[in-house]
Fold each of these.
Amino acid sequence: MLKITTFQETEKSVRVALCGQFTGEYVAELERTVAGQQGESKTVSLDLEGVTFVDREAMFFLCTAKSRNIAIQNIPSYVSRWILQERRCGSMAAHFKTQETKNEPK
């Protein structure tokens, strides 16, 4: 289970705190939360201090956060190392591209 809590830090910035297990089933909900805040022209940061587990799909979201102007703070060390590894190798993007191709109707 993942708890998503939004904190208004300043007039133009929001911190989205995650607590629990961040798995693929919560990615869409988090994307909606972030998009809603960015739609109001607010700077969004994710606070991962309370995160106890991250699966591959959630990690893909985190790896792409920077390119979507989402800051990440209080990253658990294992998540930080995983993000660095994925950026070096680019293996996660290739994995998801392969999965999308496999799931396409013929």
Amino acid sequence: MVLTTGLLVLLALHLLSIGIRPEARASRPSLVLMEAFKPLLVVESQMADDASDFLHNYFDLVGVREENLRLKQRLAQLEGQQRQMAELEAENHHLADLLELRDALGTTAIAANVIGSDATGLSQTLMLSEGDRQGLRRDMAVISINGVVGKLIAVSHDAARVLLISDHNSALDAFDQRSRARGIIAGIVEDGLAMKYVERSEDIKPGDMIVTSGMDGIFPRGLLVGTVARVSREGPGLFLNIEVKAAVDFRELEQVMILTTRPPAPSVQANG
């Protein structure tokens, strides 16, 4: 069938070629064949045009997809750069706040990034990005813009470990800013703080601010430790049971400041 059709097409083309020679006149059979095969030739021409259009559209579509992919990749890159710039801006603002706090305290200090924490859960400690190369030593005070963080307990060349005031081994001399009652801040379970050795006769109320006394030789006087959350006189004993909410969220710390020298003791004002 295909062979017969092909032969007919060839025969028609041959007769048509004869008919279009300048010296020859078109014969009637050639005219008949021309009319008969005209639809076929039109269809063939249309199919060729359609195929050409299809190829052009295909390559155009491939180009559009490649351009779309390129634009998506560029957009992702720009979004990543925007996030990095926003993070850098936030870090710069936080660092500026730390430097302002340092100037207010009138001391020398070194800023450091928090690079890790105790994964065992046995102690409340953080790892810092600076060490003795930058002038850090054991027992230096560590603070943030919100309040007291802890003290350095280990220092290597380029890193240091800070014991948080929320650790049960920590002991921080502090007092109630309103009533002036003095006690020792120590860590308790669930990252909380307790103010110990405050006599039952002392005037301590929820909401009172607890600040450093400056009597431990590490922290300057008047740094915010936290706020009294609960006071109880229940049970036997000579002292109050006082829970304190830390001023610093230790789990959210990213940058801290280490006081390399003790500043002059700031004056402490009572709340009223």
Amino acid sequence: MLVSKSTVRITLIIVILIVFLYFFWMVRNALYPFIIGLFLTYLLNPAVCYLERKNIGRLWAIIIIYIILFSVVIIGGSKLLALFIKELQSFALDLPIMIENINKLLIQMQSQYQNSALPYYLRIAIDDNLLLLENEMQDFIGQVVNFIIKIISHSIGLAISPILAFYLLHDWYKIKSELLSFVPSSWRTELILFFRDADTVLGGIIRGQLLVACIIGVFVTIGLYFLQVKFAIIIGILAALFDVIPYFGPIIGASPAVMLAILESPWLTMKVILLFFIIQQIEGNIIHPKIIGENIGLHPLTVIFVVFVGGEVAGIIGMLLGVPVAAIGKVLIRHIVKVLL
């Protein structure tokens, strides 16, 4: 039986993609600086292109953007870091009292639960689910700790990310031309279209999600400050970091504030939950659609699925990268099918 050329091409491309994915998976620990560098490149490239349109050379445009960026980071970061350290010291002092209050609350809840008139089978089901929830929370906390340790251990590699981003920005067009030179001439037009679509999708996700996360972090910090919840800055930063995880991130980011409010009073707990609910509604209905819009191009069920898969494969990092990888994969598959069929 004869095999068509299109079938051979599709099979060959699938095999090549699998080999590349396997290779990148094997060296994934060495890729973090390059991933951060690519992230910075997509973040800064629009500003560099804007200065280019103002008749400023690309090299000087990059230098100007870097000077502005580092000035903002140094000036703003020093003030924010001072507040962050102050809250962190306060948190360290209050931690023993908080642990004691949590233990008292748990003992009180356990006493009320044991004295309740719940049927035996219902108690068994509740106990099993609580045990499962406890194990899941321990696993997640372990992943967060490992993620932080991994960031610290890769700090030297992360420090060179701005340098990698500098070279990527400077040689942006040259890199694209080099990649195109390895592609058969019959595919080049489609590859250019793929780069354009992928650039639109990935750039929209990265820049949009970062802006959304910053806005949410500010909203949370201001809201908790007015509600007089302790460690508003720390919780605001955590809320911003976790907000980049679709659907589940806001829930995770709200957890520390809710736990602190529970230790204070039921009324404060209700106000904190209401605050996060309002912020989530504003994000979901106004901020997110306005800033990111349709750039992702994925159905909500697909987003939830890839977040779960990413978390299973690579923990928190997998949850962060799942949506961008899936969005680029969708664009890639669409263009491959267009070329081969």
Amino acid sequence: MVFQISIGDVLALSKLAWSISQAFTSGRKSAPAEFQEVQNQLSSLCHALDSLKSLSLRHSTSADAGSGSNSITPILQNCHFTLEHLEMLVSKYMVIGDQEGTSESQRKRWREEIRKNWKKVRWTREGGDLARLQHNLGVHINSLNLAIAVLNSEINQNIGHQVEDVHGMLREIYTWFTRNLKGRVTSFHKPSSEPQDGSPELTFSLHRGNPESYDAAPICDNASFNAEWLEHLNKPVFQCNCRHQRTVYGDAHDEELAEYFVSPVSLIVRLNGLSQSWKIWLSSGRTSRLTSLIMSNIPSPKELVAFENVISDLAITAARPAIHQGMSSIMVFPSINPYMELPVISVLNMLCDTRRLYNSITNVKLTANGHRYSTGPIETVQLVHYRNLTSEGAWLFSETADVILNTHSEAQNFDITDDGISEFTLTVDNQTDVAGGENASHVLISGTDCLSRTKAGRENTVKGVYVEIELRDEDSATYLIWQLRHLQAGLLLFKIQQIQRNEKLVFELGLGLLMVYDYHIPDATLKLAMNLKTKDYRLLFSNASRSICLSIETVSSKSLQQTAKASELYPSFDNPCWVAETNLDGVRIYQQRRRASLICADAHTQQLLALMLQSVVRGESA
């Protein structure tokens, strides 16, 4: 059946719940302590209604919403009755104070009679007490969450059916391809995923774990991984190859490298966005403590692919305790992919150095919905990015990164710390506006989401937050802006190279030699991904070493349909295209805005590419 829920009705109900929750919030100093739980429940109800609003938008383009939508209407009606009665009570028992310099919502307080006689108030339409109101709110929240889960499941099932239809068509194409081109498939190029014979061994430089000393002499400038170091935890991770090559740092470093072993929390993460440096955490046999080293100077893009495979293997090893024992830390923890509502393991993927900012933030102002909060002094800042390991063993990269602000343990006299909030997490993507403020020591972040977490673990999310970060001096502010932009550059790089967590892989195809723009990409691979929220497509191209990667952005279903139905054999796209080139000097990212025509050197591969794009269009119209 067609989805019958009006987005306007859900939005109006959400605004009503938010308005009442703000009344309970602003009046809490004049209210009995029992009102605190009602305030928390109203906030949870707002979040549930916001989720339903987002779900309604996802359903608006669906031809079949499933039977789950039948149960939403009575839930919303009952919720409306409860909120309407509460709104009447707020209007009756709240007054506006006469404090100057504050907004009307901040001056609201409960009448004195409510403090004395709140047990006699009829908190529900049926004349129930406050406990009955709390029960009703809990029923509304649980019912909404259950219905949302059912509807979300139906959406994902519909998407899954569409992708399965496409896969079925691809199997038909493959059968046609092998039947009609039998005896001529020798000209068909396939990407060489296996390392070639005689390929150079993966080597790198090792430095102490202080990013500020990268330019100092390395521990070893020609190190490599020991064979089977991941399988045998009592085997040193590194070996020195300097004996095979004269270096300015000496002949061999075997003794020093022999002290580093894999730890259960060992991980390799990229540093500072586009830099060609990585940080690894290992166990030191000399100190019996966890220590970190910096890895850099990987000689070629071909070795870089091998290195990325090592990073993934170590990440899977680090994820096992989270999978089997439920263990979690800032580096690895179980989570839910919000776009698929499926469990994943989040693993730290990128980190920006922020140690210079320790105790450098004097205050952070958070402004949203006409309200402003101050955090007080911030002790530590962490800029982190995660990738997600799915149950199928695939890696999906988060499209956003986190700015984690930990409040000072001795912060006092700031309104938000009265609630025991110890951590704020700001969400940024590669397009989030980051700039300096009018005051040179301030940093501004616009339109972000903010998750606050109390010492007891209670969480609350506010969207559309304007953030003003106040630092001790201009140098600290400049450094923070640099690091945030490094973080955004890294996000853009991972987007160009990898499937994101808000996307689903539709198909992957080896193209052999591909000509697009003025690039000749040997051993090219195409991945077609669909955005689970917008339903737009993205085409990702790369060579075997990923030294050249292209991402043709936001190809709509209509555009893909027009391209696939065109009489010409060579698909063309007018959409913007991001390009990432990796070489010994680093990573260069830029954008192409010309029309892109996809030309394969092999004629049979060209025909197969056109057929596969057509199969996607057929799958959508089926």
